Amino acid sequence: MDFTLTKEQTLFLQMIREFAEKEVKPLAAEVDEDERFPEETVRKMAKLGIMGIPFPTKYGGAGGDNILYSMAVEELSRMCGTTGVVVSAHTSLCVAPIYEHGTEDQKQKYLPKLCSGKWLGAFGLTEPNAGTDASAQQTTATLDGDEYVINGSKIFITNAFYADVYVVMAMTDKSLGTRGISAFIVEKGTPGFSFGKKEKKLGIRGSATCELIFENCRIPKENLLGKIGGGFGVAMKTLDGGRIGIAAQALGIAQGAMDETVKYVKERKQFGKPIGQFQNTQFQLADLSTKIEAARWLVRVAAFKKDRGIPYSVDAARAKLFASETSMEVTVKAVQFHGGYGYTREYPVERMMRDAKITEIYEGTSEVQRMVIGATLLK
Amino acid sequence: MNIVVCIKQVPDTTEIKLNPETGTMIREGVPSIMNPDDKGGLEMALELKDQYGAHITVITMGPAQADQILREAFAMGVDRAILLTDRKFAGADTLATSNALAGALKILDYDLIITGRQAIDGDTAQVGPQVAEHLDLPQVTYVENLQFKAPKTFTIKKATEEGYQTVEVDAPCVVTVLASANHPRYMSVSGIVTAYQREVEIWGFDNIKVDENKLGLKGSPTRVAKSFTKGGKMAGQLYEVDAKEAVGIIVNKLKDKFIV
Question: How far apart are alpha carbons A375 and A371 in whole angstroms?
Fold first, then answer.
């Protein structure tokens, strides 16, 4: 067992930290305040290969792995939760399922454009009546000649509108329940595919979250992703991977709030000394930093197992559960440490607190993670 | 076009700490980085490669850990990396360093040799010009901008104390570049992933044809008489006045110091 970073990981952290500090941090408050999707940052990340980290170079990827990918999402989110989730949703929820379940033709067609960041990806599973109970899909796909006709809608779709490619779940046979769900690749611009309202959110406000609307949207039957009726499996496996990304995002937000807090308590003086010199401050920060470090290694263990083909669903669930709840705890306390200043937008910790909350909800709520972990224990 | 870029690993001086008793730099825990002017020079080479196609070699003289900046250079897009390292090179001042570098450069093909203006640890700005002298090449220092004009001319904007000068020089030549010339690119992810799979060539004394007496401590005429920590600056004085009054105050202060 070896917990030291490899030379490549060290070099990667040097690059991604510099990138996050110089390119992401300066925009973080603005994209939040203006609810603006950071398109320019996505273009810069694309140029460096950040939009295709864990995929082979033969498909245009960077040839890295999920540990590097999790480090990227962590470091980006440390500065800006929005930027972290743009990369996570693209990589884990769109590129990964096409790479893992696509035919060679689908891989050749989509992966080079997605991995190079020329195209952005998104994923459509959630519906108004199919949230945690994802099996209750109402969107349908019906085969008509050489085409599938999709009808229905998806909500809360991260990267929607800006994404060029969508991995979408739809019922191909309602009588079969979850075995009647299939996955499809739908391109932006396909007639019958449009966008509904953009959500106004508490946090990650720069990330685009919209409704996808399908009205007799016809796609070639070659766009079926995986087997007919295999969509629920595709979705669940995709979310397992996605949880590594969201756990890394939560971890990054927590670390960002910790960094801000450590800086602040050294400077802020009350009762004649920096508040960091009070034992109460140090004890609380000690507890929080311990949780952050524990979360970091849960994330890395899950990523490590995924890279080696070892089953990692429970590890990803644990990482996401613990990292997201840690992120919420750390950011709430970071605001408290900052006092009244922390409640204002003069300081970034209130944004971090708002950004942290979603990590307990999307890609499986904390309750879902507990279900996954609990069910495995009692199997 | 063949370009050789000379780079140096330096301590990150934004994080430097001095031992208050001995006045020496505390090296433990201080991160090492690619010297900023050298990185500007490397970016200049990479931009030429992007525009015209070029083969870029980076070379550094230093201890084994200097390998790190060569890997970084690989990840930024260079084609070949050479680490010049040997016990006989140790203790070199700028002259002995430039002798070793020039010895190595004589073996390499080049149309353009790029160095940084100066390293942030020594601040001498001597190595680049000395390399040019050893190789008997034209040199342009303090370069802000460089454009290639086929077949073999460079149009160069260089900084002077008064402003800028634009000169033309034919290849082969040596230029020393300022960090302010550009914004060096980030390492690419795929470059990072393969950086340690590529070969850094290790060259020692036996690879370069240079007289041993011109290398390392033996070849270094510089002797450091004393090192000490600079005294801290006094707290400044703050005047909140309008512009006209400020001019008067500044002029009087300068007169007090006999500057004007």
Answer: 6
